[in-house]
Specification:
The protein is of the alpha+beta class. It has six helices and nine strands. β8 and β9 form a beta hairpin. The protein starts with a strand and ends with a helix.
């Protein structure tokens, strides 16, 4: 015979209550044990490196940002250099890879802007080769002057980079990071703001970006 309470609800059987209680106890113990044994992803206890700081709009670049050395692919060769000579002007970091057609199609307008605003603007391409590309593909791209197909007069890029990718948490391509002359991050976007549709009409406007 069924027992009822309230508005027609079945009163649980005592055996069922004991079974539910046992299951809940096991579940609770399992969750507690898992929590105690699983390290935080940013703790380093799992053998991975602690989570690095990611810069956002409004942050300043680190003190060693300008003095840290990077490997540049320049004039068909590689050279180690810092970003010191780009300090004091607007700097745009252009994150890209060879298979990103949008990245390459943007270069024509970027090349024009670099000439137009050369007194206050620098643009540096950044590639975390070999994650996406390889050095032989770079050499072929340069040797066959494929860069000219995309409106570039020359071809230069930071390569083998993880530092800048980690610093700005690059997650899309192309990605443009705008850093003002004082070292503050003003814009992070996938849109090519150097296109004529987004003109820098004055020095003040450029610095504001």
């Amino acid at each position: 015979m069924k027992n009822f309470f309230g508005a027609g609800e079945v009163l649980p059987n005592p055996k069922t209550i004991k079974l539910y209680s046992a299951l809940l106890s096991i579940l609770w113990f399992s969750m507690f044990s898992l929590s105690a044994q699983t390290p935080r992803k940013d703790s380093g206890a799992d053998g991975s490196k602690p989570k690095k700081e990611v810069l956002r709009v409004g942050n300043d670049v680190p003190k060693d940002f300008w003095s840290r050395k990077h490997l540049f692919f320049r004039n068909g060769d590689t050279v180690s250099a810092t970003l010191e000579k780009y300090k004091g002007k607007i700097l745009v970091l252009d994150f890209w890879y060879l298979g990103c057609r949008s990245c390459l199609l943007d270069q024509k307008e970027i090349a024009k802007a670099k000439k137009r605003y050369k007194d206050r603007l620098n643009v540096i391409m950044v590639n975390n080769l070999p994650n996406w590309d390889n050095i032989e593909a770079f050499k072929k791209f340069y040797r066959m002057e494929r860069y000219r197909d995309f409106g570039m007069d020359d071809f230069e890029s930071i390569i083998y980079d993880n530092y800048l990718y980690d610093l700005f948490d690059s997650f899309t391509y192309p990605m443009y990071v705008w850093i003002n002359k004082d070292g503050a991050i003003r814009t992070i976007t996938g849109m090519n703001l150097l296109d004529d549709r987004f003109p820098i009409s004055s020095k003040e406007e450029g610095e504001r970006l």
